[in-house]
Write a structure and sequence with these properties.
265 residues, alpha/beta, Helicase, Ruva Protein, domain 3, 2 domains, seven-stranded mixed sheet, two-stranded antiparallel ribbon, 11 helices, 33% helix, EC 2.1.1.182
């Protein structure tokens, strides 16, 4: 089989370190009957070790050459390959109780995380390898310099834990950044939700667009509609000082006042 050269347009960096691979598989803890989907299997560094524990694995691969290689390497009854851009895949097609895993291309990691959030009701857990600084933003808490829109939006939907770092030397070609593995578990159905999730997202985006400004300025004309005492947030606070629950209260207060999102967003 000919050697595959990493394609920059797909953000390909192939995991090669056997020790790191074992550490990732151990963290995932795959069981034979799991309904697992691997995003971007590449040269199958994780695919083979996962299949050693699973009866069947689904994979989403955008690179047609790698998709063909996967089909030649693994029998169809063990591995089902969907040749597609993960950003355009409806993961709900794979069924319920999904376990999503993958070394995500760093150039599309944030939009892919948001895409996965749309099918979180179908997901049991997610184990992803991402750029370390992205993972640190995902799990950051209030008053942390890494806390931002990504933190709030993902923590609204998941319980997350950074598991461990992965050095550039674990890949071929080696990326210029350190990577990290994160575990994401969707929050239960009884979680606190915003009345209007679109408004919630727009509020968080507006608040962090000018994160150094006080909220009474960063929110523009929405600030005049906000019952600050009622929501328990100081108008002089900055976005990085407000937790997820605070943003939910703020969003619900605006929703109760009939904020016309199309006009204000």
């Amino acid at each position: 089989m000919t050697q595959h050269r990493a394609r920059q347009r797909f953000g390909q960096n192939f995991l090669t370190d056997a020790g790191v691979i074992e550490q990732i598989v151990r963290a995932i803890d795959p069981q034979p009957e799991d309904n697992m989907v691997e995003i971007g299997p590449g040269l199958s560094a994780l695919t083979g070790p996962l299949l050693a524990h699973l009866k069947h694995l689904s994979a989403v691969e955008i690179d047609r050459d790698l998709a063909a290689r996967l089909r030649l390497t693994f029998p169809g009854e063990r591995l089902t390959v969907t040749e597609a851009d993960a950003l355009e895949v409806d993961f709900a097609q794979f069924g319920n109780d999904l376990r999503l895993v993958g070394n995500l291309p760093y150039n599309i990691s944030t939009p892919l995380l948001f895409a996965c959030m749309q099918v979180a009701d179908y997901v049991r857990d997610q184990h992803f390898m991402l750029q370390k600084e992205v993972v640190e933003r995902m799990v950051a808490g209030v008053d942390d310099s890494d806390y931002g829109r990504l933190s709030v939006m993902l923590q609204y939907r998941y319980r997350m834990e950074k598991l461990f770092d992965v050095p550039p030397t674990a890949f071929e070609p080696a990326p210029k950044v350190v990577s990290a593995v994160v575990r994401m578990i969707p929050l239960a159905d009884d979680r606190v939700r915003a009345h209007d999730t679109v408004l919630f997202g727009a509020l968080v985006q507006r608040a962090f667009a000018q994160r150094r400004k006080m909220l009474r300025r960063a929110l523009g004309d929405w600030a005049a509609l906000m019952p600050w005492d009622e929501v328990g947030v100081e108008p002089t606070a900055r976005a990085e000082q407000v937790d997820v629950a605070g943003f939910i209260r703020m969003s619900d207060a605006l929703s109760a006042r009939g904020l016309p999102l199309a006009k204000g967003a």
